[in-house]
């Protein structure tokens, strides 16, 4: 599937930031560009001028190492200037190698240690329900990330509390840090696992913008259960040298030639 | 003390609708009153300490004040990263009520003994660490927690402790309390060890040795000024804690002196749990004896520092 201009633009923003910082989680960010794009273009309620507005929807990027894609969409949507992306990882930048609440407008939780987003998301969803708020909570995790048991503790609790205002999404790119998830720790049958933990669960091609829009329009999937979307993605999507290649999970010491090679892929 | 802490959560929940209780599979009947009156703000979650700390963080992000309660070891060791990241990095007003600080769970063995909880909680930026000396002080502490904007670790001693604290001394987080004055020496104590020190001071008095007791209920933020001032007037100082000697109250006193008043260092001796896991069961008192935390060791340490025979 060829990217449209918007998917290319957001990827270009990611590269701008990587060029500024000389590093970044390329593979991890590129697998979730379309997921974030659809969330921020068509699903989430937010006001970039008032990022703390009480009636906003909450999005938590639990796989915080994918923050380049989050910074790209937040900048694009006006939470901070696009020109700030090139400050990525510089000493006094707001944009660190993992996203921080209170520093980056639009970031709800400081993540980076894997396995924290779902428990926090459950707490927020419970709080919003207590406050009779109609705001929703979305958490995006990695696939390797859900090796962590804390996720499953929280998933069980979300089902117990019938959190219809909570949607957990998995960026199922089939790779983690060392290699393939089937080799490191196979998650299959993943959809059945989520279902058996009490989530009404759907699968989608996580790079297909209209399929993502269609499925997210159906949220919440049930009247008394939380929702889950397993997004099938490709790590490093759009960059042939990086697609499916664990070497590109994270890169540092990038040269101008490396960066140019990346821009060329989007030409 | 535990009953008082939970009673206070109920009282607080009536005063302020931001107050939430989160337990992790506690005993039957816990906080039934709150559960009945405010079912929405009472959460009894599964055996899942990592999750409940993250959940409490999420609730606090939206303006609630969660009081989280379970056994101290599980609320510290099991979910240390959640405490560090979810509570302390985010700097959220979550209160951790930790059952069984020190040797309370003696018969249950070392998996259940919170011996290093003060040290590891104290190491975390933004975290306050408090160990009240009895149920009355627990009441004063708990009722003062609504407005503190940061996380608090509250260490519970054993149940049914004697009441030694006094209303007139009040309670201010981060301010030590002079429980007894003495011209010769000073015990600096925290938690229920304040009780042991007061008893020991009575014994010493009979032998003509006049020893005071400074109760440091808040180990962090540490009351540098109060502690140093109290140490200046005496010849010997013995710190006493039901906690491993590394990293707890005694260490905090040494650090404080080392930075601000190194000339006070030679006066200090520390009593606490030795640097090893418990190898005995029995009762809290038998463990304290095994660890060498008794009136007679306190007398011995004080007399040695004062330069006399014990
Ligand atoms: C608690 C914790 N353990 C280990 C790491 C180091 N780490 C960062 S990313 C990663 C792999 C994550 O894989 P996955 O969730 O599949 O993310 P993606 O493949 O999308 O990058 C690891 C092990 C971490 N950040 N946090």
* Structural classification of chain B: alpha/beta
Overall geometry of chain B:
globular
Helix content of chain B: 25-40%
User: How many beta strands in the DSSP annotation of chain A?
Assistant: 7
Large-scale geometry of chain A? globular
Number of helices of chain A: 10
Major sheet description of chain A: 5 strands, parallel
The largest sheet of chain B has its strands arranged as 2-1-3-4-6-5-10
Q: Figure out the total of helices of chain B.
A: 12
Structure description:
The complex is a heterodimer of chains A (267) and B (310). Chain A is an alpha/beta fold and 267 residues long. Chain A is built from ten helices and seven strands. In chain A, the strands form two sheets. A five-stranded parallel β-sheet of chain A has the order 2-3-4-6-5, with helices on both faces. In chain A, helix 9 links the parallel strand 5 (200-205) and strand 6. Chain A is globular, with a radius of gyration of 17 Å. Chain A starts with a helix and ends with a helix. With 310 residues, chain B is an alpha/beta fold. Chain B contains twelve helices and twelve strands. Chain B has a seven-stranded mixed β-sheet, with helices on both faces. In chain B, strands 7-9-8-11-12 form a five-stranded mixed β-sheet, with helices on both faces. The model of chain B has no long low-confidence stretch (mean pLDDT 96). Classes of the chains: A alpha/beta (267), B alpha/beta (310). Chains A and B meet through helix 5 and helix 6 of A and helix 3 and helix 5 of B. The site of thiamine diphosphate (TPP) has 19 residues of chain A, from loops.
């Amino acid at each position: 599937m060829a990217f449209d201009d918007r998917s290319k633009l957001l990827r270009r923003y990611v590269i701008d930031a990587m060029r500024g910082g000389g590093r970044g989680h390329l593979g991890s960010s590129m697998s979730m560009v379309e997921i974030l794009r659809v969330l921020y273009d068509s699903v989430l309620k937010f006001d970039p001028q008032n990022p703390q507005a009480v009636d906003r929807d909450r999005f938590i990027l639990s796989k915080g190492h994918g923050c380049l894609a989050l910074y790209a969409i937040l900048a694009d949507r006006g939470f901070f200037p696009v020109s700030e992306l090139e400050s990525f990882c510089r000493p006094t930048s707001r944009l660190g190698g993992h996203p921080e609440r209170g520093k980056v407008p639009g970031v709800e939780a400081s993540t980076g240690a894997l396995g924290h987003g779902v428990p926090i998301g459950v707490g927020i969803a419970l709080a919003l329900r207590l406050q009779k708020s109609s705001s929703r909570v979305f958490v995006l995790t990695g696939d390797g990330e859900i090796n962590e048991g804390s996720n499953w503790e929280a998933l069980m609790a979300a089902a117990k509390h019938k959190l219809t205002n909570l949607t957990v999404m998995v960026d199922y790119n089939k790779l983690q840090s060392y290699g393939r998830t089937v080799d490191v720790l196979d998650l299959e049958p993943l959809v059945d696992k989520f279902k058996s933990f009490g989530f009404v669960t759907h699968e989608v091609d996580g790079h297909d913008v209209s399929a993502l829009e269609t499925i997210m329009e159906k949220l919440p999937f049930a009247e008394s259960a939380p929702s889950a979307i397993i997004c099938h993605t490709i790590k490093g999507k759009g960059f042939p040298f990086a697609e499916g290649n664990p070497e590109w999970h994270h890169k540092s010491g990038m040269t101008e030639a490396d960066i140019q090679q990346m821009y060329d892929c989007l030409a | 003390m535990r009953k008082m802490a939970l009673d206070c959560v109920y009282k607080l929940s009536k005063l302020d609708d931001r107050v939430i209780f989160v337990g992790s599979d506690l005993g039957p009947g816990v906080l039934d009153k709150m559960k009945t009156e405010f079912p929405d703000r009472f959460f009894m979650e599964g055996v899942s300490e990592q999750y409940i700390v993250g959940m409490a963080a999420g609730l606090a992000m939206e303006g609630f004040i969660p009081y989280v309660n379970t056994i101290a070891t599980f609320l510290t060791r099991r979910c240390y990263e959640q405490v560090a990241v979810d509570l302390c990095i985010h700097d959220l007003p979550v209160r951790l009520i930790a059952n069984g600080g020190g040797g309370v769970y003696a018969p249950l063995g070392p998996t259940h003994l919170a011996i290093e909880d003060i040290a590891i909680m104290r190491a975390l930026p933004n975290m306050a660490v408090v160990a009240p000396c009895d149920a009355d002080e627990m009441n004063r502490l708990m009722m003062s927690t609504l407005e503190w904007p940061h996380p608090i670790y509250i260490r519970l001693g054993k149940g049914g402790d004697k009441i030694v604290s006094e209303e007139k001394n009040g309670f201010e987080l981060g301010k030590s309390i002079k429980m007894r004055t003495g011209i010769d020496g000073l015990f600096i104590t925290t938690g229920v060890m304040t009780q042991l020190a007061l008893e020991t001071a009575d014994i010493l008095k009979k032998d003509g040795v006049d020893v005071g007791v400074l109760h440091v209920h808040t180990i962090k933020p540490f009351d540098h000024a109060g502690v140093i001032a109290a140490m200046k007037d005496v010849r010997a100082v013995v710190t006493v804690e039901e906690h491993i000697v590394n990293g707890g109250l005694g260490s905090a006193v040494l650090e404080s002196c080392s930075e601000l008043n190194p000339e006070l260092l030679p006066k200090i001796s520390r009593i606490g749990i030795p640097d090893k896991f418990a190898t005995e069961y029995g009762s809290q008192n038998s463990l304290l004896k095994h660890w060498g935390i008794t009136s007679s060791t306190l007398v011995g340490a004080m007399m040695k520092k004062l330069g006399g025979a014990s």
